[in-house]
Write a structure and sequence with these properties.
This protein is an all-alpha fold and about 140 residues long. The chain has one domain: Up-down Bundle (Four Helix Bundle (Hemerythrin (Met), subunit A)), CATH 1.20.120. The protein is elongated. About 80% of the residues lie in helices and about 0% in strands.
Amino acid sequence: MTQPLWCLLGFAVWGKLLLYGVGMCRVTAVMKGEKKASEFPGGVQHGSDAYWRLNRAHMNVIENIGFFGVIVIIGTIIGVASPWWNWLPVVVVCGRVLQSLIHISSGRNLAVNFRFTAFLIQHLAMLGMIFEIVRHSVSRTG
């Protein structure tokens, strides 16, 4: 399995870990009698700020895994192979994990700025991967 595919798997595993965190918070609240199982409306803030940041960090993974997955799969199918192609997916996953951890830890302005920086790094790395796909495709046809 290639490094980009391992990174895609890592991205998915990170999303599952965040989901399990959200689930544990919900199950705990229900078991303690603090909430009913039906009191977790989708898209509506509920629970503590920390819980909601965890929930949003999970949703941010879900919102972005499709983009990353398409890029990795297309590059893998067409046989992109370069040092950049192997390194950039690592940057994406590390940026995603960092963004999630910052998101979970605080909602303060400084944290939001750092979180946006991690977001930007991920998306610049994905643009670099797209560039590698285009470069590979052009070099094969030209």
